[in-house]
Design goal:
Blueprint lengths: L25 H12 L18 H6 L3 H16 L5 H14 L3 H13 L3
Helix pairs in contact: 1-3, 4-5
Length: 118
């Protein structure tokens, strides 16, 4: 199975092809900038911090930048401005990912949980 974070995956293995930065519309570019300069920019190995086309769930959000901006701001609020300590926040994310069998969420947050002491 292809790694959704790997920009080098064969184009046919993705549901949504990555959009090269030079092909972004002004609205998509604004969303990409908001993601790359927000709280996610502080995370190592995030799809938001890698050079080139933006990957992970952000790639899908670019298809509808108005909705994508709302989703990314909500996600940023829930994840980075929570009252939970980071360790418990990651535990809650992993429990939710497991309950819903969300492999992407599980694999992207497992490393954060391990680094946080879980």
């Amino acid at each position: 199975m292809a790694n959704p974070n790997n920009a080098n995956d064969a184009a046919g293995s993705r549901r949504f092809k990555l959009i090269p930065p030079e092909n972004l519309t002004p609205e998509q570019s604004a969303l990409c900038d908001a993601i790359r300069t927000g709280a996610r920019s502080q995370l190592k190995n995030s799809g938001a911090t890698r050079p080139g086309p933006i990957g992970g769930p952000f790639n899908v959000w670019l298809r509808s930048p108005g909705v994508g901006d709302i989703v990314q701001r909500l996600g940023e609020q829930i994840r980075f401005r929570t009252s939970l300590p980071p360790k418990l926040n990651e535990m809650a994310i992993l429990i939710t990912a497991r309950y819903w069998t969300s492999q992407y969420e599980w694999s992207s947050h497992l490393k954060h949980a391990l680094n946080g002491g879980l």
